[in-house]
Amino acid sequence: MMPFKKFLIVDDDERFALLAARKLEHFGKCYTAESGEEALLYFQHHAQEGAPFDAVFMDIEMPKMNGHEVVGKMRAIEKQMGTGPAKEFKLIMVTAHSDVKNVSMSFFRGLADAYITKNNFLNTVENELRSINLTA
């Protein structure tokens, strides 16, 4: 059995974030943030406490700061703290869309480890976690 993980779910749709947290609670402790700003506060605080998140589930389309921007800032925080590649958080981009532009931006710019559409989340998240070594 792998050690318990810690997940940050970032989505401006509170209902989806809570649904995702309920699905993921069997695999790790879940924190939810409803904005990029809130997510960055959680992310930085936990990293500074020496207990960083194992994975971040990031909604792409959010008001003020989109998911790609938030991820960029999170990666910059990791770099600033000297986090090595093996210790960087796993990134799972989550969106209502499955268009090629968002998928390619997520993987190539955001260095995403997985991409899940919201309408498929409950059915696919467990397999995605397994494929990126976040579950047994």
Topology readout:
Blueprint: E1 5-10, H1 14-24, E2 28-33, H2 36-48, E3 55-59, H3 67-80, E4 90-95, H4 100-109, E5 114-117, H5 121-131
Parallel strand pairs: 1-2, 1-3, 3-4, 4-5
Helix pairs in contact: 2-3
Task: Walk me through the structure.
The chain is α/β, with parallel strands linked by helices and 136 residues long. The chain has a single domain (5-131), classed as 3-Layer(aba) Sandwich (Rossmann fold). Helix content is 43%, strand content 20%. It is built from five helices and five strands, in the order βαβαβαβαβα. The chain has a five-stranded parallel sheet with strand order 2-1-3-4-5, with helices on both faces. The N and C termini lie close together (6 Å). It comes from Pseudodesulfovibrio senegalensis. The modification 4-aspartylphosphate is found at residue 59. This is Response regulator. Residues 6-133 form the Response regulatory domain. Pfam families: Response_reg.
